[in-house]
Amino acid sequence: MHERAGRARIHALRQLEPHIKPASGGAPGHTRDTGQEIIHGFEHGVEIRGRAKVLDSYISLTDFRYPDGTVPHFDAVCGWSVNGVVVRHNTLTAPPDQTAAVNFTNDFGSINDVLIDNNYLSGGGYALYVRGDATSPHSPALGKPVKNIRVTNNQFGTSQWGHASVVQAEISASGNIEQATGLPTLTD
Asked: How far is CA 35 from CA 9, 94, 131, in A?
């Protein structure tokens, strides 16, 4: 791992085993870049808070359980309270009974300036789940917008209910296709 000017970048391809904590974005204002990783056996492949880049990685989650047998809610890449995230050129998959391959929700803070570009996304209820829901006045998401989410040039595999669920979020999408047919999906 090479550190410079408050940024960490992983240069060599490595496989993370279940006992090693996966990459995670740091406190706001810090950046964690992850690249060329093979990640499996975790609740979340990459969990982001703050700014981060997830590049050129293979993240596949299958049948993770805690030691007591509990099956958690998990995603290949997820983010809460983020600003300045790039998810590019990855293969990201999740089992069909989980939320998503990529999940950005505002339960713990605003989501802003996210680029999801040139990935293969598959699995989960939806391959992509972006939620800015604040349905009740007591919601932890109230007053925390989800905006400036760009979803471009991705290939979508199969998912339980569809390619994407976008709820109360400002996104732009273009160049996305369904892998099986080559037809456009998730467009503006």
From this structure: 7, 19, 26
